[in-house]
């Protein structure tokens, strides 16, 4: 059975482009070795990552990440069995949101920049909005 895990973390020191390239190269090699696919998003010193593969391998990699000196405050957001891979074509897809003109991205939410407006109540949030609230709370700590 396939398993999917989503976590967030904070970089322990600012990463330059070369650091990020090296991180991606090693991640992709390790993921290929373990049969892991996923995506890594880098935004405002934070990593958001989804890993998917065999449960034992996913957790083996997650515990390696938790002990990696480049990551701090590693928080597991969810883990769950899945029927198919969401990122089957990528040993590690990557998006550096710090280098993207977000105004040109279709459907990009400005929530992380502005927060919720008063007309949205906490009582009627979708699962995605609840996830964003958790992430915003995480960023503010």
Descriptive labels:
2 domains; 141 residues; alpha+beta; 4 helices
How would you describe this structure to a colleague?
By secondary structure, the chain is of the alpha+beta class. It folds into 2 domains: 2-99, Alpha-Beta Plaits (2-Layer Sandwich), CATH 3.30.70; 101-141, no CATH class. The protein is built from 4 helices and 5 strands; from the N terminus they run βαββαββαα. The protein has helices at 17-34, 55-67, 111-114, 127-139, and strands spanning 2-11, 37-43, 46-54, 71-82, 93-96. Strands 4-1-3-2-5 form a 5-stranded mixed β-sheet, with helices on both faces. The model is unreliable at 115-122 (pLDDT under 50).
> Total strand count, please?
5
Helical residue percent?
Answer: 25-40%
Q: Report, as a whole number of angstroms, the end-to-end distance.
A: 35 Å
Shape: globular
Structural class: alpha+beta
Q: Can you identify the CATH class of the largest domain?
A: Alpha Beta
Helix and strand run: EHEEHEEHH
> How many distinct folded domains?
2
Query: Strands of the biggest beta sheet: in what spatial order?
Result: 4-1-3-2-5
Report the average pLDDT across residues.
78
Largest sheet: 5 strands, mixed
The CATH topology assignment of the largest domain is Alpha-Beta Plaits
Supply Rg.
Answer: 16 Å
In DSSP terms (H or I, runs of 4 or more residues), the helix count works out at 4
């Amino acid at each position: 059975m396939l398993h999917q895990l989503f976590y967030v973390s904070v970089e322990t020191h600012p990463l330059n482009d070369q650091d990020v390239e090296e991180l991606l190269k090693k991640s992709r090699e390790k993921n290929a070795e373990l049969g892991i696919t996923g995506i890594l998003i880098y935004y405002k010193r934070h990593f958001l990552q989804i890993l998917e593969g065999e449960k034992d391998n996913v957790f083996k990699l997650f515990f390696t990440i938790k002990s990696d000196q480049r990551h701090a405050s590693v928080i597991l957001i969810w883990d769950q069995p899945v029927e198919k891979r969401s990122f089957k074509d990528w040993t590690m897809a990557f998006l550096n949101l710090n280098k993207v003109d977000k105004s040109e991205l279709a459907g990009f939410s400005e929530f992380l920049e502005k927060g919720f407006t008063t007309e949205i109540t906490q009582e009627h949030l979708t699962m995605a909005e609840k996830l964003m609230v958790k992430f915003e709370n995480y960023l503010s700590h």
